[in-house]
């Protein structure tokens, strides 16, 4: 809408003391509407004595263009760009480093979240697309432990937490690097080959309990059973070797159930399978694992002797695995690795199952509890909503974490949890071995353990 102001002929009204013989007067057209009250006054109430050089056209803007608030104007899309940058920062540590710009662009195209991405209904298309990732940016109001007095977080307190139950999720304090990534993989989405791989891994853990004793002195542990396998530092002197119970090894030899080559092949196959899962979940974390392993000259858990050359799948020195309602208190780890891979597999309880029961849990799986929590951020990984494997990487040295009690009311089921680590004490022992500063240093690989067992036959 435009209002036209023009200047007519000289007025015939009585002149003032100043000569107005050539001063035009403002004339309004009766056909034009009066100025709306919400518009600002365009001309002063009194007419200036200086005549304008020429007629002018005044076009007031639409009312929406007038500032209606004293607040600073917000640029369109600013918040969207800011949140996308925060989400990209939260995903960065999990991505593999790449010197190929085209590959980096492809990685960026694959970054998405449930806030901005939609899922395709075409299963064939989904197989070719990047996974959808939910990014949870923990607000400052949730960056504290709501119940620090609780040694074991209660289910009532967990209602205050943000729960991850399915899909792929990343958690990070708002504006800071992430501390966790978790991926839930249902059994019914796995191929027959993948299911077989997990079944073989579970059977490998069962078999290893015939050679390694349960861990007795794990500080945070409250209940349940834990075993360790791989390389560790000796408890009494500057030596290191593979986890092995000589008494158990003697028993297996007497039963003629021990073959060194078969044992080495089984350990290598399990280590490689876990390594591949880590690379799929977080290739950037896998690179950090390998960097720590190689820079500290640590033995890989797949090595039967030390030293041996590394291969492309070596990433950790040892692993621990737990069963039978394992839970612990809140703690931070002191390992050499800052990021830790942990995984949970629902299975039939080997103490109570029959020979006809499968290895992996079925649809009647009834475990309750057993959540994995980050108390300082009120984040909970719920392991009971998806019947399948849950894989997670988290910053184990920097933030308090805890496994809560869990149980199967029927007694038919339990859950295997395992994690890959590298001991700080082991690193010091290796340094002493390389530098020759430790007197009477002993390295106990498979050959040494077999020799010790044969002496007791």
Verbal overview:
- With 457 residues, this protein is of the alpha+beta class.
- It has a domain at 180-454: Double-stranded beta-helix (4-Layer Sandwich), CATH 3.60.130.
- It is built from ten helices and 20 strands.
- It has a ten-stranded mixed beta sheet with strand order 5-7-8-16-12-19-11-9-10-20, sandwiched between helices. It has a four-stranded mixed beta sheet with strand order 6-15-14-17, with no helix packed on it.
- Strand 14 and strand 15 (379-381) form a beta hairpin.
- The radius of gyration is 35 Å and the shape is globular.
- The chain starts with a strand and ends with a helix.
Describe what is shown at a glance:
The protein has helices at 78-91, 101-110, 123-128, 155-158, 192-208, 246-254, 260-281, 283-295, 424-435, 446-454, and strands at 3-4, 6-7, 26-27, 57-58, 133-138, 162-164, 168-173, 180-186, 221-233, 240-242, 318-328, 339-348, 368-369, 372-374, 379-381, 388-395, 402-403, 406-407, 413-421, 443-444. With 457 residues, the chain is α+β, with helices and mostly antiparallel strands.
Largest sheet: 10 strands, mixed
Strand share of the residues? 15-25%
Query: How many strand elements?
Result: 20
CATH architecture of the domain at 180-454: 4-Layer Sandwich
Order of helices and strands: EEEEHHHEHEEEHEEHHHEEEEEEEEEHEH
What top-tier CATH class of the domain at 180-454 fits best? Alpha Beta
User: How would you classify the helix and strand content by structural class?
Assistant: alpha+beta
How far is the first residue's CA from the last residue's CA?
105 Å
Binned, the helix content reads 25-40%
Count helical runs. Answer: 10
**Mean pLDDT over all positions:** 83
Q: Order the strands across the largest sheet as they lie in space.
A: 5-7-8-16-12-19-11-9-10-20
Instruction: Report the C-alpha radius of gyration, rounded.
Output: 35 Å
CATH topology assignment of the domain at 180-454 = Double-stranded beta-helix
The outline comes out as globular
Q: Low-confidence runs (pLDDT<50, min 5 residues)?
A: 1-30, 99-129
């Amino acid at each position: 809408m435009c209002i036209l102001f023009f200047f007519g002929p000289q007025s015939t009204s009585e002149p003032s003391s100043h000569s107005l013989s050539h001063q035009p007067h403002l004339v309004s057209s009766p056909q034009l509407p009066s100025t709306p009250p919400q518009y600002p006054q365009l001309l002063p109430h009194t007419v200036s004595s200086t005549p304008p050089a020429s007629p002018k056209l005044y076009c007031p803007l639409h009312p929406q263009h007038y500032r209606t608030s004293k607040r600073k104007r917000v640029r369109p899309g600013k918040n969207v760009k800011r949140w996308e940058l925060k989400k990209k920062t939260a995903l960065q540590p999990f991505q593999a480093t790449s010197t190929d710009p085209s590959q980096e662009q492809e990685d960026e195209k694959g970054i998405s979240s449930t806030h901005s991405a939609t899922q395709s209904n075409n299963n064939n298309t989904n197989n070719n697309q990047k996974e959808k990732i939910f990014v949870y940016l923990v607000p400052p109001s949730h960056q504290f432990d709501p119940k620090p007095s609780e040694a074991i977080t209660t289910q009532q307190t967990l209602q205050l937490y943000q729960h991850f139950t399915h899909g792929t999720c990343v958690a990070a304090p708002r504006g800071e690097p992430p501390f966790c990534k978790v991926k839930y993989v249902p059994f019914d989405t796995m191929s027959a080959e993948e299911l077989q791989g997990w079944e073989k891994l579970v059977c490998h853990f069962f078999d290893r309990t015939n050679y390694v004793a349960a861990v007795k002195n794990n500080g945070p542990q409250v209940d349940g059973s834990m075993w360790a396998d791989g390389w560790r530092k000796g408890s009494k002197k500057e030596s290191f070797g593979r986890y092995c119970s000589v008494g158990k090894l003697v028993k297996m030899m007497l039963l003629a159930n021990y073959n060194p080559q078969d044992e080495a092949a089984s350990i290598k196959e399990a280590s490689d399978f876990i390594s591949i899962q880590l690379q799929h979940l977080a290739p950037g974390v896998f690179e950090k694992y390998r960097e720590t392993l190689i820079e500290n000259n640590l033995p890989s858990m797949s090595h039967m002797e030390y030293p041996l050359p590394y291969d492309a799948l070596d990433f950790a020195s040892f692993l621990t695995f737990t069963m039978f309602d394992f839970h612990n208190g809140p703690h931070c780890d002191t390992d050499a690795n800052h990021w830790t891979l942990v995984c949970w597999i629902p299975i039939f309880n080997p103490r109570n199952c029959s020979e006809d029961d499968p290895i992996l849990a079925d649809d009647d799986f009834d475990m309750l509890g057993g959540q994995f929590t980050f108390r300082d951020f009120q984040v909970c990984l719920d392991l009971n909503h998806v019947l399948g494997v849950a894989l997670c990487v988290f910053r184990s040295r920097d933030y308090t974490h805890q496994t809560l009690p869990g149980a199967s009311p029927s007694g038919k089921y339990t859950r295997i949890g395992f994690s890959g680590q590298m001991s700080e004490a082991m690193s010091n022992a290796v340094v002493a071995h390389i530098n020759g500063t430790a007197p009477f240093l002993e390295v106990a690989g498979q050959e040494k353990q077999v020799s010790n067992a044969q002496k007791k036959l």
